[in-house]
Amino acid sequence: MPVIFKGLPLLSISSFYFRARPALTMGPIPLCLLLPVTVLATVVIAEEATVDDEYTWPQWKVPLVRNRRTVPLSSPKFSAQPQLELTGTCGIECQRRLPAPSQDDLEQFLSYETIYENGTRTLTSVSVQGEVTALSGNSSSRSRYKREVYGTDTRFTISDKQFSTKYPFSTSVKISTGCSGVLVSPKHVLTAAHCIHDGKDYLNGAQKLRVGVLKEKSRKSRSRRSAESEKPSFRWTRVKQTQVPKGWFKGVSDGVAADYDYAVLELKKAQKVKHMDLGVISSVKKLPAGRIHFSGFDDDRPGNLVYRFCSISEESNDLLYQYCDAKPGSSGSGVYIRLKEPGKKKWKRKIIAVFSGHQWVDVNGNGMQQDYNVAVRITPLKYAQICHWIKGDSSECQVA
Which Gene Ontology molecular function entries are recorded, alphabetically (predicted)? Predict the structure, then answer.
């Protein structure tokens, strides 16, 4: 019996990732055709090499982000309330009119606060060493979609424990402040900064922050008569510390705050779940498939993991506008794509962005706002910073 995801057979889900090649048969070839066929084969091989390159993860040399100085700060008030959606952020159109940030600007934006489980916090200033490579951006489509859900809802509820607790869905986690996140190491979760901090203060639930990892219910707790027994439960883990880039704070980066809507949570206990690595891609729209994927815990489907995939509407160096249907609760999800590993035939999923959520963005600088579903891209510089937070040694983060 096929497993159904919200009315969709499992085979249909699998077809998003795997494409079967049709079987070809060939009879005897006349000698006079061998030369043309040989030439054609050479052309086909060259074309296949090009296609393979398009489907291969690029390798990036990333700059080094090194700590300069760490100073203690006063404890925060933890007075901020969760935000269902962000407003007034400077979007792609708005950012096109901004000057390129200087080296000093980048070092200020990438300086970061660390908030610890006991309520104390520190500020760490950083230095950026090496060439800062910009991604290709400002690619757009004239068609624009609005709202959190665009027409027919194309989200899939992954309610069966056989799939929600298996990779890649198992990398999705629930944040106790009401957001989602993704495991990027056994002890680290990547999420959106606004799930922790509203730009002025930390959320009132950030001091006792917890992360829920999906787990299968034990046989003893299952009820044969109840369909609810098939839903996965959460294994909750306390957060040891959280790091948020200073660029997210109001009054620091102003117009580019949306670019820094990401944070990393370090868990007190390592999780025995496969995590997903970070990746950097120059342009999503130029990929042969051009689709992104992510899973999160949307508020309108409580207790369930929700998966979706979609195309990109517009992209800049730091942001993605995309068509994925989403609701509050999915903010902080890891946006990923699937490409081949360099020199191998193996395909691998990597996180290329953090889903920031439904936002009202400033499109022309005069206060006019437009709503989009927005994701923050992993650039080489952000990769360097996040990798440094995870590994603790920036020298291990020189190639993405």
Answer: serine-type endopeptidase activity
371 Cα distance to chain centroid: 20
Among the residue ranges 121-135, 147-161, 264-278, 318-332, the one predicted with the least confidence is 147-161
Q: Indicate the pairing of strand 112-116 with strand 121-129.
A: antiparallel
Residue with tokens 């999923």: 349
333: nearest Cα among 238, 257, 261: 261
DSSP states of 314-365 as a string? EE-SSEEEE-----TT-TTPEEEEEEEPTTSS-EEEEEEEEEEEEEEEESSS
User: SS3 string of 135-189?
Assistant: CCCCEECCCCCCCCCCCCCCCEEECCHHHHCCCCHHHEEEECCCCEEEEEECCEE
Which domains does the chain show, CATH number per domain?
60-396 (2.40.10.10)
Residue-by-residue DSSP string for 191-253: E-GGGTB-SSSBBTTSTT-EEEEEEPPPGGG--TT-GGGGS-EEEEEEEEEEEEEGGGSTTTS
- Spatial distance between the Cα atoms of 390 and 384, rounded to a whole number of angstroms: 10
Q: pLDDT tens for residues 22-45?
A: 333 333 333 343 333 333 333 333
Contact criterion met (CB below 8 Å) for 366 and 356: no
pLDDT digits (tens, 9 = 90+) for 331-388: 999 999 999 999 888 999 999 999 999 887 776 666 677 778 999 999 999 999 999 9
Measured CA to CA, the distance from residue 124 to residue 245 in angstroms comes to 10
Per-residue pLDDT of 112-128, as tens digits, reads: 999 999 999 999 999 99
Please, how many CA atoms are within 13 Å of residue 254, restricted to the half-sphere of its CB? Answer: 9
